[in-house]
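> run fold ACT domain-containing protein ACR
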Amino acid sequence: MEWLDEYEKLVIRMNTPRVVIDNAVCPTATLVQVDSARKRGVLLEAVQVLADLDLSINKAYISSDGRWFMDVFHVTDRLGRKLTDGSVISYIQQSLGTWNDLPAAAPLEEEEGGALTALELTGADRTGLLSEVFAVLADMECSVVEARAWTHRGRLACVAFLHGEDDAGKVERILARLGHLLRGEPGEAAPGAVAAVPAAGVAHADRRLHQLMAADMDGGGAFPTPAVAVDGWAERGYSVVTVRCRDRPKLLFDVVAALHDMDYVVFHGTVDTAAGEARQEFYIRHADGSPIRSEAEKDRVCQFIQAAIERRSLEGVRLELCTPDRPGLLSEVTRTFRENGLLVAQAEVSTKGDVASNVFYVTDAAGNAVEQGAIDAVRERVGVDCLVVGEEPPPQICEKPTPADHGVGGGGLGLVYLGNLVKRNLYNLGLIKSCS
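> ok
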């Protein structure tokens, strides 16, 4: 009923989220606690804020009781340290404390002198494809403000934001040339596609990449997958999703985004990391309040989450480029990768003012480790000082693994029912004294 919808809005507006950031409770991590009225997507928004700051979530406790939402995150920076930067802490408090008055995600800000246009591309990946895409954009004198590209299971997805492309005729020519690159082989099951949309319509680049690759089906074939299981708890009307895989940055965001895109709501959950492994458990229902009811739907959820985890591949050598921006820079750099037999598995491109700050994960053409000679040759061509080899810091552990942890095989994920979950974890939300 309409009046109930208005009542829900009133409850949300009357109960501004309460955000507490505490560095004293846990010796190895900063606690971020969020209490608010429950609304659709509130968990994803909270995790997204932390992920966009490149913070590691070592533990999390999620609870939604009636109309209320409470979440506790144990977070560190990329080097495994507690948060001490006042500007970062203030940003978290402001972002999480005012989300009821903001859109679900803020789109990329428009540049002075014109709106941004977003290009969305999907297609079969091949060595040098990303280089060809950027070469077309450089040839047509397009200014790339920001771009994200992922490859997974032989497919490529890319979102690129262009500045000042408000000429409909030019946009059509860009789409035609890129469409020619992405069309794939005749009879291909999932041919490539390219579209142009206003940048304001792309609320969050990583979430959009997930959606593009899910719609593109991520190719096919047999690939090693993370351990994901779905069980039912009919007495309480929940479905229980358990995930166990290697820990990595933004893992929780990717899993929560996958559940959100499938139209599920997380009511309770826990997240733990130990010895480089992540264990996640979520109690979910459909947005209409019903649990998962069929084996086919369980299989679909498992496959969807497995693909979401695998897409953000951090395999390969991380190359960080920081240099004054200039026309054709991306085309030149990616062409150099191609000429030296390197495949770009993932790319994050951004331009702030006159400085280009880009990150590439590269492998050889077969997806294997790159020989040092190829890396040295690329750095010599691009510039040793501006293209450096970076390393992802190892996951920081704030809980020692127990012998029982090592005894759990891939087929047994150790389902913990909600009664134990509340007793063991949620009872401690206000009483946590350590990470162990």
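Confidence is low (pLDDT under 50) at residues 100-107, 393-436.
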